[in-house]
Each structure stands twice: as C-alpha cells, then as structure tokens.
Amino acid sequence: MKPMLELRNVSHVYVNDKGASLAVEGMELMVGKGEFVSLVGPSGCGKTTVLSLLAGLFLPARGEILLAGQPVHGPSPKVGYMLQQDYLFPWRTILDNALLGLEVRGELTAERKAGVRRLLEEMELGGTEERYPHELSGGMRQRVALVRTLATEPEVLLLDEPFSALDMQIKLQLEDLVQRTLRRLGKTAVLVTHDLAEAAAMSDRVIVLGSRPGRIRQIFHIPRELKQQLPTAARRHPSFQDVFDAIWEELDAGEEGVERSEESTAE
Amino acid sequence: MKSQRLNKSAQQANQVDAEQAGWLRQLHLDFRRRARRRTAAVHAVQLALLAMFLGWWEAAGRLGWIDVLLFSYPSRIGQHLWTTLADGTLPPHIAVTVTETVVGFLLGTIGGAMLAALLWWFPFVSRVADPYLVVLNSMPKVALGPIFIVSLGPGFLSIVATTLSITVIITTLVIYNRFREVDPNYIKVMQLFGAKRSQVFREAVLPDSYPVIISTLKVNVGLAWIGVIVGEFLVAKSGLGYLIIYGFQVFNFTLVLSSLIVIAIVAAMMYQLVAKVERKLMAGWKDR
Predict the structure, then answer these.
(1) Are B167 and B103 spatial neighbours (Cβ–Cβ below 8 Å)?
(2) Measured between CB atoms, which of B189, B193, B284 is closest to A105?
(3) Given an 8 Å threshold on Cβ–Cβ distance, is A100 in contact with B207?
C-alpha cells in the first residue's frame, strides 16, 4: 500500500524570546490511503504540532513531510482540516460558509455549488442554507464545518479534536457520521484527541505519544472486528474494553515513568 | 358508540387547545400593553422636562431674573431663527458647515480605515509608526490649526484639515487594534484553504471588525463637528462656527445661542442618519 502521508525523521522547534524548545523529535510515521489514524497523548506531546505540520501551516525544523509522495511546502488542496470548534464565519450564511474553501480557491462553479448543497442535505442540514450560524445548535454547526472541509474534496482529513466541545450524545452521533462519510468517500484521516475511547472506537491505528519532546511511544493496531463497526457499535463490542485498557495502561505508564524519573533525579 | 366517544374527546381536546391559545394571546397582549404604556411615560417625561426648561428660561428672561443680553430667551431665539431662515441669510451658513463636516467625516473615516489596513498589511510599518502614532494621538490636534492656516490658506481646506487631524489618528488606532484582535482561528481557517493575504483580509479580518468600524462612524460624527467648529472659530468667514464667534464679538448672544441650537439639531440628524446606516449594514448577523 502506497502511503498517503509520511513523516520522515521529523523534528520541530518553537523559537521565541525565552529560547528555543524542542516540540517534536525524530518522528517517523506512515499513513496509508483510506486509513484512519489517531494521535493520543498527554499535553505537551506535540499532537497539534504534528497536525499543523501535516497541514503545511509551517515547515518542520528538520526532516521531511510527504503527501502522496510529494514534499509538503504549504497548505495543499488535498488536505482538509477541522478545528476544535466550528469557527463558522458569523457574517456568512450557512451555504456561504460551506462554500468558503471553493471561493478562496476560485473553484466555485454551479456544479460544485450543487454538490455542496447535496452534501448539506446528506448531513441533515437541508433548509438551513440561508440561515446564519448563530441560529444553529453546536452539533449542527460542527456538521456545517465538516461540509466546509469536505466541499473542496480533500484526500486527507486532519481532525483536531473536532468533537471535544460537544455534548456526549451529539459527539457520538457526529463520530458515526464522520466515520460513515470518510469510509464512503475513501478518505484518509488523522485524528488528534485526548478522548481514548473516541480514538479506540474510530481508528484503524492508535498512536500513543510521549511528551517533552513529543515522540512516538507505542502503536496499537485496532482489531478487525472493531475497525469494521461504526464508533457507537464499536464502543459496545465485547473486545472494546480490552483495547481501551491497553491504551490506557500505556499512557498511564508513560506519565508515571516521567514522574519516577523526576524523583530519581531529585535523589 | 365508540366513535362517538372518540369524537367527544377530540372536541374536548380542541376546546382545551383553543382555551390555551386564548390565554397565551391574552398574556402577550397584556405584555405589549404594559411595554407601550412604559414607552409613552418615558416620552411624556422627556417632553415635560423640555417644556419646563424652556418655560423657566422664557420666564427668567422676561421677568429679568437673568441678564437677557447674555442669555437671551427662547421666543427671541425662535424669532431670530425664523427671520434669518425666511430672509435666506442662515441657510448658506448651515450649508457651508454641513459640507465641511460631511467631507471631514468621510475623509477621516475612510482615511483612518485605509491607514489601519496599511498597518495590518505591513507589520514592519506598524512597528515603525507606533511611537509617532502615540505622540500624534496624545497631542491636542487643534493646536495644529495655525500651521494648517499658513500652509493651506484661511478657508475650506484648513477647516477640513483640522477636522481630519482630529478624526484620522484615533480612527486608525481603534480600527487597527480591532484588526489585530481578530480571532486567529478565523485566519487559520482561511490559511488552511490556501488563502492569500488579501483574501484573509477581505473575508475574515475586515468583516470580523465590521461592528467596530461602524461604531467609529458614530464617534467620528461628533469629532468631525468639533473639528469643523474649531476650524471655523479660527479662520472662517461663513458657517455656524463663524456665526458663534461673530455673535460673541458683537455681543449678540441671541445669534450665538440660535447657532448652537441649529448645530444641535443638524448634528443630531447626522447622528441618526449614521445610526440608520449602521442598522442597515448590521442586519442579519448582529446578534451572534
């Protein structure tokens, strides 16, 4: 399988007045086409940094990032990004928000506009096209944000905790919706989350990161019987708890390890 | 038998619905009536205050409680306004002042907004300009009046320049600061779509700052009037500010006060106009 995304020995450094700090060190990762990968880890493990690097928002200090075999130099039309909150523009109608990406790229044709309208219908947002974001609920708004991201037909979706600001029930519904949509369209996805259950229920692989500097600690392959289910069904599957516990233990051990090593240096 | 009973219960249900609807309508009507009554009371008190003030002023003038030479009284001012309006001596002064104010207001607001855009576009320029802007902003700009007069001549240009000096800097600073406070995530959304800087500005920074830009319009109406009246104090040979100074010099305070009243009325009208424009521009996404 040809990798859709590839990190080759990537390190990233943040520089400011106080000094330069290593955020991510020597990261190697391959994500295949159509694969769903989650990054989990404690705060400071560079999850969001990795996502921003993949999106081309900034370039790595060292190493190389490849998208479909090509080096990443900046934001690419092949990559879509969903933020923690919807960040719909309050001065635009729902339809205009969904069309934002196409407008920015100058790709707005009648045909693609019709496609976006169809996508809104599929997300059960029909009839809201001319309304404004403040008139919609949080779950609906995040669905509009999903349409906005999918409208430009990206190959890869980067999801930066897109469900974290939602109520539990809405969150579960959206997880299913996103998973169904991604599978139907055959998209590749990288999800950053600190909700381990979400990671276990949605992903093909869960990557546990360690912190300061961020690096890969462990990779979990989710068993086939869970991968094939939608997230809500996977959460109810008998083997789900074992997977969850394994990831949990790994994360827990990582954090204890840090504490223990701090203690030992103190002695 | 059974269907009859069903019908009956359906009728009952309909009756209950109708009763409830009537009750709700009644509550709504009561609420509206109370709100109307409250608004009427506010208007009545406002009018009464004005009438009391004018009545007291008129009586004080006629009965000699105040010096009529200095403070005049309403009927004299009204008569003065009426005759000067009727014989056509007042309207040209109003026209001159309104023109200067509108020109100063528009140039100040547009110029300030454009300068703010320039500062946003070139962060380097903004850092270079920062101390100059601080000094210019804290300086009493009216003190520049004599310099405008010697360089632009005693007339329309100097007055507009005085107005601009008052409005431009503060407009620039307020709008530029708003540009910088735009939620970085809106900008991130644009960048992720590969937007150019001009697109980021047009589609995210500018519309997000819209409410602040519009509210500077209101502030600038007031500032433009200050600039114009001060400018006319300094140089003019016509205009409402000129009439005030002229009336002061010849000790005709009826003229001074009637000019003040005209200014108050015209300025209030301009303010209302801007407020109307604001409501129009903000329709749709105001309550977010």
Answers:
(1) no
(2) B193
(3) no
Residue B78 lies in a domain: yes
Q: Name the range with the highest mean pLDDT among A25-34, A73-82, B140-149, B181-190.
A: B181-190
How close is the nearest chain A Cα to the Cα of B212, in Å?
A: 14
pLDDT in tens, B31-47: 999 999 999 999 999 99
B40 and B91 inside one domain:
no
Using a 10 angstrom Cβ sphere, with 0-12 exposed, 13-18 middle and 19 or more buried, the burial of residue A17 is exposed
Q: What are phi and psi of A16, to 5 degrees?
A: -145, -170
* Residues B84 and B34 both lie in one domain: no
- Check whether residue B81 and residue B202 sit in a common domain: yes
Is B193's CB within 8 Å of A85's CB? no
Nearest chain B residue to A130 by CA distance is B284
Residues B132-184: tens digit of each pLDDT: 998 988 888 888 888 998 999 888 999 999 999 999 999 999 999 999 999 99
Residue B194: closest C-alpha in chain A = A75
**Which residue positions in chain B have pLDDT lower than 70?**
1-8, 283-288
Q: Give yes or no for residue A126 having a pLDDT over 60.
A: yes
pTM: predicted TM-score of the whole model, two decimal places? 0.81
Contact map slice: A 157-216 vs B, CB within 8 A: none
d(CA A1, CA A205): 15
- Domain spans of chain A, in order of start: 1-71+156-165+184-220, 79-153
- The ipTM (two decimal places) reads 0.86
- How many Å apart are CA B228 and CA B163, to the nearest integer? 6
Closest partner residue to B193 (CB to CB) among A89, A91, A152 is A152
pLDDT at A265 over 50: no
Same-domain check for residues B164 and B260: yes
B287 in a structural domain: no
For A160-172, how does the pLDDT look when each residue is reduced to its tens digit (9 = 90+)? 998 888 888 888 9
A199 CA: distance to closest CA in chain B (Å): 24
Q: Classify domain A1-71+156-165+184-220 at the CATH class level.
A: alpha beta
Touching check for B202 and chain A: CB below 8 Å? no
B35: amino acid identity, one letter: A
Q: What share of chain A is helix, strand, coil (3-state, %, to 5)?
A: 40, 25, 30
Residue whose tokens read 């809201």: A128
Structural domain count, chain B? 2
Domain that holds residue B226: 71-282
Query: Hey, are the CB atoms on A91 and B285 less than 8 Å from each other?
Result: yes
Size of interface A-B (CB pairs under 8 A): 57
Residue B221 touches chain A, beta carbons under 8 Å: no
Q: Are residues B60 and B79 in the same domain?
A: no
Using a CB-CB cut-off of 8 Å, the residues of chain B touching A130 are none
Which CATH number do you get for residue B223? 1.10.3720.10
- Is some CB atom of chain A closer than 8 A to the CB atom of B288? yes
Q: Are residues B150 and B39 in the same domain?
A: no
B288 lies in some domain: no
Indicate left, alpha or beta for A78 from its phi (over 0: left) and psi (-120 to 50: alpha).
Answer: alpha
